[in-house]
């Protein structure tokens, strides 16, 4: 497995609740995300996420976490890995998909494959 350490370089962030900009960092925490494999090696992104204070007195939330466009909140995989799994899941059955992904360095269960395919199917119908 290849581990890649990442962090944001932006000086400020918009509150996810009220939209006001803040540069007051409250704390930091680590998230580990699965990403697309590189030459049949699994890839894990070790992302340092900042929590900010919201300076808007009208906002109901005192702190908020930094958001990134390449990953959903609370997700354990990047959007592009989910898209890759979805493509493979639509092409093959879930057991073949799991086997092929494992050969490529990505370990997921057949239930995860089915959940991703079902989620994308329902999102495309909206």
Estimate the mean pLDDT confidence: 94
The coarse overall form would be elongated
Distance between the termini: 37 Å
**Helix-strand topology string:** EEEEEEHHH
Rounded to an integer, what's the Rg over CA atoms? 18 Å
Parts with pLDDT < 50 across at least 5 consecutive residues: none
Which structural category do the helix and sheet elements fall into? Answer: alpha+beta
Helix content: 25-40%
Number of strands: 6
Number of helices: 3
Summarize the structure.
With 126 residues, the protein is of the alpha+beta class.
Strand-helix topology:
Layout: E1 2-7, E2 13-14, E3 21-22, E4 25-38, E5 41-53, E6 63-65, H1 79-91, H2 94-104, H3 110-125
Parallel strand pairs: 1-5
Antiparallel strand pairs: 2-3, 4-5, 5-6
Characterization of this structure:
The structure is a single chain. The chain has 126 residues and is an alpha+beta fold. Helices cover 32% and strands 32% of the residues. The protein has three helices and six strands. The termini are far apart. The mean pLDDT is 94.
Quickly list its features.
126 residues; alpha+beta; 4-stranded mixed beta sheet; 32% helix; elongated
């Amino acid at each position: 497995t290849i581990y890649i350490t990442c962090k944001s370089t932006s000086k400020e962030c918009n509150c996810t609740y009220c939209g006001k900009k803040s540069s007051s960092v409250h704390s930091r925490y680590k998230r580990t995300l699965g990403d697309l494999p590189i030459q049949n090696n699994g890839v894990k992104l070790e992302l340092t996420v900042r929590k900010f204070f919201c300076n808007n007195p009208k906002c109901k939330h005192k702190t908020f976490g930094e958001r990134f466009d390449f990953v959903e909140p609370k997700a354990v995989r990047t959007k592009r890995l989910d898209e890759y799994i979805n493509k493979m899941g639509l092409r093959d059955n879930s057991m073949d998909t799991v086997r092929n992904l494992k050969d490529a360095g990505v370990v997921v269960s057949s239930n995860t494959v089915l959940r991703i395919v079902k989620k994308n199917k329902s999102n495309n119908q909206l």
